[in-house]
Amino acid sequence: MQAVEIKKGIYWVGVIDWNLRNFHGYQTGRGSSYNAYLIIDEKITLIDTAKVNFKDEIMERISSIIDPAKIDYIICNHLEQDHSGSIPTIMKKCPNAQIFTCMPNGLKNIPKFYGDLAYKGVKAGDSLSIGKRTLQFIPVPMLHWPDSMFTYCPEEKILFSNDGFGQHFASTERFDDQVDFSTLMYEAKKYYANILMLYGRQAKTALSALKDIDVKMIATGHGIIWRSHISEIVENYRKWSEGETSDEAVVVYDTMWHSTEKMARTITEAFARRNIPAKMYDLKENHISDIITEILTKKYLAVGSPTINNTIMPTVASFLCYLRGLSPKDKNRLAFAFGSYGWGGQSIGEVEDELKKAGFTIWLDKIRIKNIPSKEELENITKLILEK
Ligand SMILES: Cc1cc2nc3c(=O)[nH]c(=O)nc-3n(C[C@H](O)[C@H](O)[C@H](O)COP(=O)(O)O)c2cc1C
Questions:
Q1: Which of 34, 102, 153, 198 has the least CB density, counted as fewest CB within 10 Å?
Q2: For the residues of 21-52, what is the DSSP string, one character each?
């Protein structure tokens, strides 16, 4: 396991998690990486670490450059265990190293993770000289936990961004100009949608902090390092954090006997007839983390559930729970509920209530059809959408 030099004297010493397919419910079809960076200067500095189950791999990569006992400083940009989990293993080799974490939340919480070690809190505007280079700390609270921060090296113009601008993307290549661009940007979008969509305000604040610094490389905590497409990823973060949507629709549903599915097809076709491109997703066949990625940039959402046992289908309930958590609560997003039922038909109203709780504006009153939809009932749905 070798380190990869990303700039003279600065090495990627991270871990590639080829087989990761589920990251707390987010389906990670392309695996991931936990990126750590070693800076060789008067003070040898490690920026972030890796999940504890990969502690041997990170130690090997560090050892390919220096004896880990020589590490002076460890910067913990984020406490979550995928970035900090190998701290105890590394600290056993370099017990005198100092760990830097964001104030107040990193400093307050890190002992609960790793016990009594040499921690030092840093805040906005603080900087640390490591020899020829300086590290400046930029707190970015809630991007993605209260302790999250960026670390910027002005001499190298590198931003160590941790979760910001990251992607779950396993690759032996380290840079954005070495991998397929559209795949990379899709994974960056999927990451933003599934991890950061609810923190648009905080993402905007983080972007404004970057306006005053010159960044030539964004060394992320997951996936690929940005060096050739920095303006594109920063522009997309601006759009995503401001909730920019296109006039497109996402139709999400589950069905037991295809009645709700017939409604979903009719709705999808009706959108298309209104020149609103639409995509339809059966929750049995599609993962909620892929659907949420579509929803991030689309203005319209229709959600359908038949009634089962006086309520919503569990797949739809799970999707709505995920949506409510991640939703940026942006009133410009438009939604409606639909579904088939046999007698009570409670599910459709419940879906509508959940869409309201997720912050959507109800665009059409809920559409309820008893049993199998007739031709006339389906035509009425089309009319409703075309005439709205
Ligand atoms: C297991 C089961 C439970 C159901 N429970 C209810 C119910 O509590 N209330 C109701 O209105 N309809 C209930 N129904 C009827 C369905 O909602 C109805 O058949 C509907 O048309 C199914 O739509 P679908 O074809 O999209 O699955 C139930 C159906 C099944 C199979």
A1: 198
A2: -EETTEE-TT-EEE--EEE-SSS-EEE----G
Distance CA 374, CA 360 (A): 29
Residue 199 known to be catalytic: no
Which residue among 260, 305, 307 is best mutated to probe the pocket of ligand 1, counting the most ligand atoms within 8 A of its Cβ? 307
- Burial readout 252-280 (b: 16 or more C-beta within 10 A, e: otherwise): bbbbeeebbbbbbbbbbbbbeebebebeb
pLDDT digits (tens, 9 = 90+) for 26-72: 999 999 999 999 999 999 999 999 999 999 999 999 999 999 999 99
Q: Are 95 and 168 in contact (CB under 8 A)?
A: no
| CATH annotation of 4-241 | 3.60.15.10
Q: Which CATH superfamily is domain 246-387 in?
A: Flavodoxin domain (3.40.50.360)
In the residue annotation, 176 being an active-site residue is answered as no
* Cut 0.90: pTM above it: yes
The domain segmentation of the chain, as residue ranges, is 4-241, 246-387
Atom of ligand 1 nearest to the CA of 253: 26
Q: Assess whether the C-beta atom of 345 lies below 6 angstroms from ligand 1.
A: yes
Active-site residue, 222 included: yes
Is the CB of 338 within 6 Å of ligand 1?
Answer: no
Is the C-beta atom of 314 inside 6 A of ligand 1?
A: no
Give pLDDT tens digits for 334-377: 999 999 999 999 999 999 999 999 999 999 999 999 999 999 99
